[in-house]
Amino acid sequence: MVETDLVDVPLKTIDLGTILSVILIILLAYLLTRVIAYLLTWLAERAGGRRITVKMVLPLLKFTIYGIATYFILASILQLSSTQLVAFSGLLGAALGFGLKDLFADIIGGLIISVEKPYQIGDKVSIGGYYGEVTDIGIRATRLITPDDNLVSAPNYLIFTQAVASASSGTPEMMVVIDLFVDPDSDAVTGLEILKEAVVTSRYVYISKKRPYTVLLEDFPYYRRLRAKAYVHDLRHEFEFKSEVTRRTWREFTKQGIQAPRAPIMGEQHTG
Amino acid sequence: MGEEEQQMPAGIIGFQNELASIRAALAEFESGEKSDVAIIAEPFAGRTTLLYAIEQITTRKTVKLSFSALITDRDEISLPPGAGEIVLCDNCHFLYQRAIGGFKHLDEFLTAVAASEHLVITTWNVYSWRYLEEVRAIDKFFPLTITLPQFSAAELKELILAGYAENELEFEDDSRPEEKRIITRHPVSFTVRNKTLAIPFFSIDFARIKVLFSRKEETRKAEDIIFEKINRIANGNPGVAKLLWAKSMQYPTIKPSFVKECALKAELDYHESFLLSLILAMEALTKPELHEISDEPEVETMLHRLLHQRLIVEERGFYKLNPEALSCVVSALKKMGVIW
Questions:
Q1: Which of A23, A171, B41, B94 is deepest in the core (most CB within 10 A)?
Q2: Are the CB atoms for A140 and A110 separated by under 8 Å?
Q3: What are the beta bridge partners of residue A219?
Q4: Cis-peptide into B297, omega within 30 deg
């Protein structure tokens, strides 16, 4: 009798109906998240400047839907008393400790990303050595599209172990840094003025009191660096902006006799 | 009738507050203090009309510089020598080009304004002004900036009816009962994967609620309904409203059903948006100018698309905004982020 009590599993009767309802719940949760993701993306693309604000609701909705689905599945197959709940928690803990700890860390990481928002869907971020636009924050992984159109799935637990850099942090605007190197004998002041005008007349630039632009000049042993920092209205124009400003500036440099350095540029300079 | 209203120049309707501010600036100038003025407004909103009114009220000698195309010669912008005159400069947005080296004439003009002992009153396209405010801090040169307000339906009625004799026109109210409802049902259509779907949607007529609460229902005449409709479609822009009036009138009769809602829709890619934003901000540009400023190799194709959508018009080689499309163009360009 004692043995029978100890092995009494807190399961409801699992019949074909229960199995079907579990499958149905999973299917419904999946379909619902897909439909909501599609609708929100459609809406976000028409929301102009509020694109990212609309999209940031998506991960939270996903977690809510999957959380509710998990609750219904557990409620349909388990009937736990307080003693059994402790026993079940112990079992769950052991399972997590042995094999599912990474998955569990990913899920918790995903929840933290949704609540704390170190980055959001639509942001340009660097995670795990990859840089790109966040297209989805899933239960297990964050998906990025790199500038080379590679789809990268970065596990959500990375936010516990690595620094994550977000270039836009929830806004569609993003600062872009453009570096041009000129010969030290060229007229750098004229060069700086040309670069400034190329930036402010660009079709992609966005300037406001909160989003100012700046142009800087710095001397190096064999060249001078002209650096422009300005915002694009939509972070998806980051590379077009760089390319357009560089192309127009160099065209004007050529007219004004400003030349590229004769010595090769040694590495990237991160001096602000 | 108030003193200020009595002093309104002949033929000028609206702009009372703006004229009062300008009178104050003129009075200050008389007492030796100079506050240069910038009048800012959307296209067709009455900048030139206000400048004409200022010309009428000033007692000092006035000099007028009116720009109608991009400035290419610095002689065109030279202020008169001496002191104490009123210099009126219309359409100052033609002083710059959104291109490398395109601010030369503007910078010279602003330096001349700052150094001048005349009172300089300028008018600017609002989208050019906002751009120049951010990239050139232009507002620092003009201590008094006046943004022209939207017209009310009553002002619009006064403006339009000023051109007709009393009882010359026949106003008829043929608005259908559903037009008088507070909540109206209408389908909203949108395109998903090249398929147009229509979903029933409800809209609330807040103006009608306001009328109901103010107990003016009985006094709402056909002409009021017509001018309210025109003003709503024109978004309070008198130039656009006058055009809409001219298109709707079947002399001497006008009915609400004659006033058609704007059916234009801007479907633009980013490059077309930028080209259109240049036309909106500069108001009149030729094809070579657009080519030079936009740095686009396919200006011709883009202009064709914009003309086809009736967002712009071509007049004697100049590409200008279609007044009817003003509201939808501004809304589309703001969404794209090309105007600020």
A1: B94
A2: yes
A3: A224
A4: no
Above 80 in pLDDT, residue B69? yes
Which domains, from first to last, does chain B contain?
3-147 (3.40.50.300), 153-258 (no CATH), 270-336 (1.10.10.10)
Assigned fold of A174-256: Alpha-Beta Plaits (3.30.70)
Indicate the length of chain B as a whole number.
340
B135 contacts in chain A (CB < 8 Å): 200, 207
Domains of chain A, by residue range, sit at 8-170, 174-256
Which residues of A are less than 8 Å from B271 in CB distance? 203
* Residue in chain B nearest A49 by alpha carbon: B335
pLDDT of residue B192: 58
The b/e string for A193-223 (b: 16+ C-beta within 10 A; e otherwise) is bbbbbbbbbbbbbbbeeebebebeeeeeeeb
Give residue A155's pLDDT: 92
**pLDDT tens digits along A169-203:** 778 888 999 999 999 999 999 999 999 999 999 99
Return the SS3 of A134.
strand
- Interface list for chain B against chain A, based on CB atoms closer than 8 Å: 98-103, 134-135, 192, 270-271, 274, 294-295, 334-338, 340
Q: Which residues of A touch B299 (CB under 8 A)?
A: none
Gap between the Cα atoms of B310 and B299, Å rounded: 16
Q: How many residues does chain A have?
A: 272
- DSSP code per residue over B127-178: HHHHHHHHHH-GGGG-SEEEEPPPPPHHHHHHHHHTTS-TT-SEE-----GG
Q: Does pTM top 0.80 for this prediction?
A: no
- Judge whether A260 and A182 are in contact, CB under 8 Å: yes
> Hey, which residues does B144 pair with through a beta bridge?
B37
Q: How many of the other CB atoms lie within 10 Å of CB of B41? A: 23
